[in-house]
Specification:
The chain is mainly beta and 337 residues long. The chain has two helices and 23 strands.
Length: 337
């Protein structure tokens, strides 16, 4: 196969140099420097390529070819491509210029020389690189916890781009995945913004994002009991985590509580507070906070203790205590306690 290619190239050369004989000799050219081996020129898509050819005074005819197509014969332009031109500095250079290079310009270019002794050629292979571009990426999705998720990120470029994934949480560590990122049994802590990056060192990497929302049933994280004296404001607190955001209900025994005279229920996202104005002896006891969404529900007991009988009423609510105290202050003004 290799021998056949050489034979084919020699036949092409012979045909071309027969054609060179028809070219006028008015163009002052010099013989090409043939000491160097065939070169590769790497150029980015959209840039201008200069393919060099230097000559001396022993030349009678010169031309540029791309594969088997004649581009220039002497100063006569045979190509119809307006992007192609000659670079001639005095009588020392006979170089080819291609503006706004595209992928179809890639290939072999030959500077062919006819001297009195023998024909000579200098070949250059033009390699066109294309920046990485992401042309298709998964849309934002909402899934239930435990589901299997596949995110896709398809990119093109020359050379082929490398695709990497990250979950943009505080660590933002790389994830195992290329065009497709598989997440088996996704958990709530895997929700967030996923970054797909395509890079091939030709230009700045292309980056796209996919937002993943993971639904899960409510989980009550902390409660806050209290032990107000009779006649003062009593506050019970309940906090739950859930996606979608949970709805809250308060119960005393089997009776659902609502905003009535003396009772005020506030809900802020995943937090709720039950406020009882002018606490009486009958108000002391066990209350139930219920958090629910379409995936499930969870309940927890919260206590309104008589002063001095409360056990661990502080729970783990220290982080949000100031918020509850602020709400309680507003409620106190509302109920005039």
């Amino acid at each position: 196969m290799h021998v056949g290619r050489k034979s084919c190239w020699r036949q092409l050369q012979a045909s071309f140099f027969r054609l060179l004989c028809l070219i006028p000799t008015g163009f002052p050219v010099r013989s090409v420097d043939m000491q160097r081996a065939t070169d590769n020129i790497t150029i980015r898509q959209g840039d201008t390529a200069i393919i060099r050819c230097y000559v001396d005074d022993k030349v009678s005819k010169v031309a540029w070819l791309n594969r088997s197509n004649i581009i220039f014969a002497g100063e006569d332009k045979w190509s119809l491509d307006p992007r192609v031109g000659l670079v001639t500095k005095g009588q020392l250079e006979y170089s080819l210029r291609i503006q706004k290079v595209d992928v179809y310009d890639e290939g072999s270019y030959t500077c062919s020389i006819q001297t009195k002794q023998q024909p000579k050629t200098s070949q250059v292979y033009l390699i066109v690189q294309v920046p990485a571009t992401i042309y298709k990426v998964s849309e934002d999705i909402i899934v239930n916890e435990g589901s299997n998720v596949t995110l896709s990120c398809l990119a093109s470029g020359r050379p082929d781009p490398l695709i990497t994934w990250r979950l943009l949480n505080p660590s933002a560590e790389p994830l195992d995945g290329e065009e497709y990122l598989d997440i088996i049994g996704i958990m709530r802590n895997q929700a967030g913004r996923y970054e797909c990056k395509a890079s091939n060192d030709v230009a700045t990497p292309d980056v796209k994002y996919v937002n993943v929302v993971v639904n899960y049933p409510p989980s009550i994280r902390k409660t806050q009991s209290s032990e107000p004296p009779v006649g003062r404001l009593g506050t019970l607190q309940c906090e739950a985590a859930a996606v979608p955001t949970p709805e809250f209900e308060w119960y005393r025994d089997d009776k659902r509580l609502s905003n009535t005279q003396g009772i005020n229920i506030q809900i802020l996202g995943g937090n709720t507070i039950l406020m009882i104005a002018n606490v009486t002896e009958e108000d002391y006891g066990n209350y139930t906070c219920v958090a629910s969404n379409r995936l499930g529900a969870q309940s927890s007991s919260v206590f309104l203790y008589r002063p001095g009988t409360g056990r661990d009423i502080n729970g783990s609510a220290c982080a949000s205590l100031s918020l509850w105290l602020l709400l309680a202050s507003f409620a106190c003004l509302f109920f005039k306690c």
